[in-house]
Amino acid sequence: MQQGCYVGGMPPLDSGPGLLGTRLRHLLDLLDADVAAVYAELGEAGFRPRFAPVLRVLAASGPCAIRDLAEAIGVTHSAASQTVAQMAGEGLVVLTPGADARRRIVRPTAKAEALLPVLEAERAATAAAAAGLEAELSFPLSRLVEEALDALDRRPMRQRIADAAPDPAAWARPGRPERAGRSAAEEAEEAEEEDRR
Question: What is the pLDDT of residues 22-57, one digit of tens each?
């Protein structure tokens, strides 16, 4: 007899720390979808919320390298590079070689510059809406996010997992070959370092 998953009869999964990443992604999805809907209502259906901080930095600082954009908006070089590539596809930015051929300079297009007044109005409305949301919470979400980021800067989650379970190799499936050399996290760090150079 086959058994199925009956949501109505299943107890909900614990929403505590074990599902933290899942719940945070869901929260971000909800926030991003609603902000994207505002852009669509304004006639900018291809504009994604993650584009706005990049354009604000470019408007305030002028053309700059992807690495500098990443630092200014507080994301990884890889994340900034992906966002810039998407923006270039939407005709919002152009990339030109920097003085050092390995660096690419991001410049806003006329299309992007025409959006700046709309982005500023949206930013003000979104900030007011976010303040209203935080007023409904038991603790300001923006402050909690900053504290979490600071804590992870001091001690990354990978280290916290290793401290909680010092022998993750014991979790390996039987018969699965062990990874030789560096961990995936070490490989990702090295790739990001290469991008910065």
Answer: 889 999 999 999 999 999 998 888 899 999 999 999
For residue 40, give the CATH number of its domain: 1.10.10.10
Q: Mapping DSSP to helix (H, G, I), strand (E, B) and coil, where does residue 136 land?
A: helix
Q: Which runs of consecutive H residues, i.e. helices, occur in 62-154? A: 66-73, 77-89, 110-136, 141-154
44 falls within a domain: yes
Dig out the tokens for 164 from the structure: 């909680």
- Which residues span the domain enclosing 137? 19-162
Q: Mind listing the pLDDT tens digit for each residue in 57-80?
A: 999 999 999 999 999 999 999 999
- C-alpha distances in Å from residue 97, one per residue of 63, 94, 102, 104: 12, 10, 7, 5
